[in-house]
Specification:
By secondary structure, the protein is mainly alpha-helical. Helix 4 crosses helix 5. The longest helix is centred in the N-terminal third of the chain and has 23 residues. The protein is built from seven helices and no strands.
């Protein structure tokens, strides 16, 4: 008779907030802040029009134009991120990635994180638990590589 090996128990994707890695009130405050910031950012982007140049949408918020292009003759590493995020929130998914792939991915990730925080609040699940289980340094490294590749792309299409 073959011997069966015990498989290790898998941690469920969603756990009740009471079983989370931090106090319930801390988990709730973090989830409210993330969901609130995401909602504020989405509402702000909905009120803006994506700039047709592929960059400069942030100027509609009263921010100064980027000083990098006049100084160096090329776009900055995050050039077009706000415009890409604005396109994404307006439902222009392809245009968002064409304008600035890094900005589109950050906007997509941020929006998904905000929705996840809201779902955790509504369902009584721990928000912090899932966040601490994410491979943080892999995500940071991947984001840095994506940012550099997107900057290279933006420089290649810069007019």
């Amino acid at each position: 008779m073959a011997e069966r090996r015990a498989t290790p128990a898998r941690t469920p994707l969603w756990i009740p907030v009471e079983q989370g890695p931090v106090a319930v009130w801390v988990d709730r405050v973090v989830a409210v802040l993330v969901a609130g910031f995401a909602a504020l950012w989405v509402v702000t982007l909905l009120r803006l029009d994506p700039d047709g140049r592929g960059h400069g949408t942030h100027e509609q918020l009263g921010w100064a134009p980027c000083g990098w292009p006049p100084a160096y003759g090329m776009p900055c590493p995050t050039c077009g991120c706000t415009t890409a995020a604005c396109h994404l929130i307006h439902g222009h998914f392809v245009q968002a990635f064409v304008v600035q792939p890094f900005g589109a991915m950050i906007a997509l990730f941020g929006t998904a994180l905000g929705v996840h925080a809201l779902l955790c609040l509504l369902r009584g699940r721990s928000f912090v638990d899932v966040i601490v289980r994410l491979p943080f340094w892999r995500i940071v490294f991947g984001a840095m590589v994506l940012m550099l590749l997107a900057w290279w792309y933006k420089c290649a299409v810069w007019t």
